[in-house]
Specification:
The structure holds 3 protein chains of 3 kinds. Chain A is 70% helix and 2% strand. By secondary structure, chain A is mostly helical. A two-stranded antiparallel ribbon of chain A has the order 1-2. In chain A, helix 6 packs parallel to helix 9 and helix 6 packs antiparallel against helix 12. Chain B is mainly α. Chain B folds into 2 domains: 150 residues, no CATH class; 69 residues, no CATH class. Chain B has a two-stranded antiparallel sheet with strand order 1-2. The N and C termini of chain B lie far apart (51 Å). By secondary structure, chain C is α/β, with parallel strands linked by helices. In chain C, helix 4 runs parallel beside helix 6. The chains are: A mainly alpha, B mainly alpha, C alpha/beta. At the A-B interface, helix 1, helix 2, strand 1, helix 4 and helix 7 of A face helix 3, helix 6, helix 7, helix 8 and helix 9 of B. The complex binds adenosine-5'-triphosphate and magnesium ion (MG). Adenosine-5'-triphosphate (ATP) binds next to helix 1 of chain C.
């Protein structure tokens, strides 16, 4: 039995055809470049190595832990793969995982697969990796820095991927941005914590048993471009969220309004579930969500540093 | 661990089973594409495309209920669509009792259309996976232009998916076997449980890395030199051409009819 | 061609610093069948991985008279058939056919020749008709036999097996022993199956903690109770 746990696999039908095509146009060159990088780095070992590790990510997604009231924490794995193998190899691995899930288990669509690859493959790998090496550099070579980086990177990877998904849904006219963005963000801020906990657990085990694996992830190609790529991703997301197209409805608001039956939708109680104005003075949901995520990120960042500090204290773990 | 990969259908024989896998993949992608182009509220169009699926079930000997069960996988994502009926501008259609949310007519139509499109698309994908042996499916990916390195990576992943999923299953079993829940005793803290799950992931990773090294050795010892040798070949038969033309004709004619009407 | 295995002064250290082989020396003559025994962690698998250059330590390893250096690896790998301890490592393809055909394909044989080799190899291990099966869905013993077929298909001059009878039921074990008895190649087999050693291998090489502690006629060593106990090889025979 195969069960989908993660709310990021977009099925076919949820994105407009134009948007779906744009996703593929973006993915093809990225993937070609990722394959070139991994081939240069891994050589003929590449195929069995990436194949087995992709199977590992797929299997690891089934490892969960109970959180509360029947919910459980799960792993998406993009950030972990990137921490251990570098962002390019992680991208290729996540592509294999996403292809298998879509093709064999219908988890995630075929025509929209371009975006699923970007969200769950490219974005998670690069944000996870960039945040990880950023914290590592910040904290220096103390042993807890891996854990801090892993925690923050894993959390951020899931949250940014969810923002991207929301924006794609909005651009497709499926769900309005003012709803999709805060909804996706608020759910994934929590899911991200589960991701972060599992990732830290994995990294701390590796730190004890096979520390050289972590070093090899840091030596993998992609370090130079990672900050740049993530900066780019965040900028594009922000601009996209602010663009008038994101909140455009396919029918065009005027047409409906002209019919005279326009409801005061803003007063529909649905909107009250997601407080319109996270920050009272900011009346734009996109900006407000980004701010909220930013504040959340700062909190998680501080927690991450504390986790690393605490773990760095000797606890009598036999080496 | 056993995944239901529709293996029970792979060994049947039918026109659809016998098709060149490339034709099937292309046909399914084209179909999903076309479903995406059906306008909202185009009920007749949806029905037409559903009939097309029914015909393919008939041709391939698939049971409708099997496909139905498989197609439920996309359900969780409906959460993302739940707000549509309430947030799309339009005339009021109905008000939910008690909570007082208003559903608009356009919203209801859009919601239904998205759900139907997603559902039709998943069904088409289920037909593909149920009538095509997995190696042939992967072969068709390379025949359609996916880089051979990626195709072999996916092949490897598929092979070790089962091995590693079995390992996970054994680990999870071992964990539950040692996780008694005693009444009146507190549960272990969430963070601790998370760490345990993380350690499982970590040790699975070590085993996977070691496994990949051994597999690579086993390949080397049998002469592997980095080249990917593709063995399978499928010729396009007459039926392949006929079905391909039929699918393309169906898609173009139906879309033409619907959009030009 | 002389199908010998020569190991001279071999020493190997794993990257984590563990010295797995200290000073290994032996020669196996063409057509000779030798068993490699020793307790868990003695270094048997490590030694075996040197015999076609997957691991390379200090010292010299020669197979068929060829020294195992980078430029000879291709040739050496075609002449040494190596079967790994875990058949899941060996069976990495989608189907049994693909797996058995893998080595012959890389030897550059024609498709017809490959097919013939696969057929013969599967027949030798008694697994005819399994070509289309998916490797993962086979039983442990079936996997083991297919794993052996994958190297038989390459028609190697030397056969090296790592614990071939582990996990086999008595009948499969018996078939395997009979198969090994019939095969004419030079053979080095690592195993914990002492009764098989007694039946099949005139020569027994014992290693412990990375060193050869005994090398000679199986009969003599199996009668030396002190030796067997000293290296964790004694087997109680309760029947
Ligand atoms: N990849 C590795 N890295 C570090 N040490 C290793 C590695 N593989 C094996 N070792 C160590 O080298 C020693 C020899 O291991 P080897 O696998 O050769 O033993 P073996 O004789 O085959 O044992 P068994 O009967 O259990 O199969 C052991 O102490 C083992 O812990
Ligand atoms: Mg061994």
């Amino acid at each position: 039995m195969y069960v989908s746990f993660l709310a990021l696999h977009i099925p076919d039908g949820f994105l407009s055809t134009e948007i779906a095509i744009v996703g593929w146009i973006l993915v093809v060159p990225i993937l070609a470049y990722a394959l070139r990088q991994t081939k240069r780095h891994l050589g003929e070992r590449q195929v069995p190595f990436l194949g087995v590790i992709a199977a590992f990510i797929f299997a690891a997604q089934a490892i969960n832990f109970p959180v509360a009231a029947g919910t459980s924490g799960h792993l998406l794995g993009g950030a972990l793969a990137a921490i251990l193998l570098g962002p390019w190899a992680a991208t290729v691995i996540m592509v294999a995982v996403i292809v298998i899930q879509a093709l064999l288990f219908q988890d995630g669509g075929l025509v929209v697969m371009g975006w699923n690859i970007i969200n769950m493959g490219v974005i998670t790998s690069f944000t996870g990796y960039a945040a990880y090496i950023f914290i590592k550099r910040l904290m220096g070579n103390r042993s807890g820095s891996h854990l801090s980086g892993a925690f923050f990177g894993a959390w951020l990877s899931v949250v940014v991927a969810s923002l991207a998904t929301a924006i794609q849904l909005a651009f497709s006219g499926t769900v309005p941005l003012r709803l999709a963005l805060p909804a996706m963000a608020s759910v994934h801020i929590l899911i991200g914590v589960g991701e972060a906990i599992i990732t830290v657990g994995a990294v701390s085990l590796l730190l004890v048993l096979r520390p050289e694996l972590l070093t090899s992830g840091e030596m993998a190609p992609g370090k130079k471009g990672a900050y740049f790529t993530v900066g780019g991703i965040l900028l594009v997301l922000f601009v996209a969220a602010l663009s008038p197209f994101a909140s455009m409805n396919p029918d065009g608001l005027e047409a409906v309004a002209a019919q005279g039956g326009f409801l005061q939708l803003g007063e529909n109680p649905v909107y009250e579930i997601f407080p319109d104005y996270v920050f009272p003075l900011i009346q734009n949901e996109a900006v407000a969500t980004f701010l909220a995520v930013g504040v959340g990120a700062m909190i998680v960042f501080v927690i991450s540093i504390l986790i690393g500090r605490r773990a760095a204290r000797p606890q009598g773990v036999p080496k | 661990m056993h995944f239901n990969l529709a293996d029970q259908y792979h060994h049947r024989e039918s026109i659809v089973h016998g098709l060149n896998p490339r034709v099937k993949v292309l046909g399914v992608v084209l179909y999903i594409f076309a479903v995406g182009l059906l306008p909202e509220g185009e009920w007749l169009g949806f029905l037409l495309y559903f009939l097309f699926l029914i015909i393919s079930y008939q041709l391939s000997g698939l049971e409708f209920f099997f496909v139905l069960r498989r197609s439920l996988i996309a359900l969780p994502f409906l959460l993302a669509a739940f707000a549509i009926p309430f947030t799309t501008p339009g005339d009021e259609w109905m008000k939910l009792p008690i909570i007082g949310w208003t559903i608009t007519e356009t919203g209801a139509i859009r919601f239904a259309s998205i759900v139907i499109r997603a559902w039709l698309a998943v069904q088409a994908a289920v037909v593909l996976i149920s009538t095509t042996r997995i190696p042939d499916l992967f072969w068709s990916l390379s025949a359609l232009g996916m880089p051979s390195i990626l195709v072999s990576t996916i092949n490897f992943m598929y092979r070790y998916l089962f091995v590693l999923a079995d390992e996970v299953l054994r680990m999870l079993r071992a964990r539950s076997a040692r996780s008694p829940r005693l009444p009146h005793k507190p549960k272990p803290p969430v963070l601790w449980e998370g760490r345990v799950a993380g350690s499982m992931v970590g040790s699975l990773f070590i085993r996977s890395i070691e496994r990949s090294e051994r597999v690579y050795s086993a390949m080397l010892s049998r002469g592997f030199d980095g080249r990917v040798l593709v063995k399978r070949k499928f010729k396009m038969k007459q039926t392949d051409w006929i079905i391909m033309v039929a699918v393309i004709a169906f898609v173009f004619m139906s879309q033409g009819l619907i959009h030009l009407r | 061609m002389h199908h010998t295995i020569e190991v001279l002064n071999l020493r190997f250290t794993y990257p984590d610093g563990r010295i797995a082989l200290h000073k290994i020396d032996f020669v196996i003559a063409p057509g000779e069948k030798a068993a490699l025994v020793g307790p868990n962690g003695a270094g048997k698998s490590t030694l075996i991985l040197h015999l076609n250059g997957i691991l390379m330590g200090e010292g010299e390893v020669k197979v068929c008279g060829l020294s195992l250096a980078k430029e000879n690896l291709g040739q050496a790998r075609a002449s040494v058939g190596l079967v790994f301890q875990d058949p899941d490592d060996q069976l990495f393809s989608m189907s049994v056919f693909d797996d058995v055909a893998f080595g012959p394909m890389y030897m550059g044989l024609s498709m017809d020749e490959v097919r013939l080799r696969v057929e013969k190899a599967l027949e030798a291990v008694g697994m005819e008709g399994f070509e289309g099966r998916v490797s993962h869905h086979l039983s442990g013993g079936e996997k083991k036999r297919i794993a052996i077929a994958t190297v038989l298909a390459m028609e190697p001059e030397i056969l090296v097996l790592d614990e071939p009878t582990a996990g086999l039921d008595p009948r499969s074990r018996r078939r395997l022993i009979n198969l090994l008895k019939e095969l004419p190649m030079t053979m080095l087999v690592s195993t914990h199956d002492i009764p098989m050693v007694a039946e099949l291998f005139p020569r027994m090489i014992t290693i412990d903690e990375g060193r050869i502690v005994g090398d000679g006629p199986t009969k003599e060593y199996l009668q030396d109770q002190a030796f067997l106990v000293g290296h964790g090889l004694e087997t109680a025979v309760p029947w």
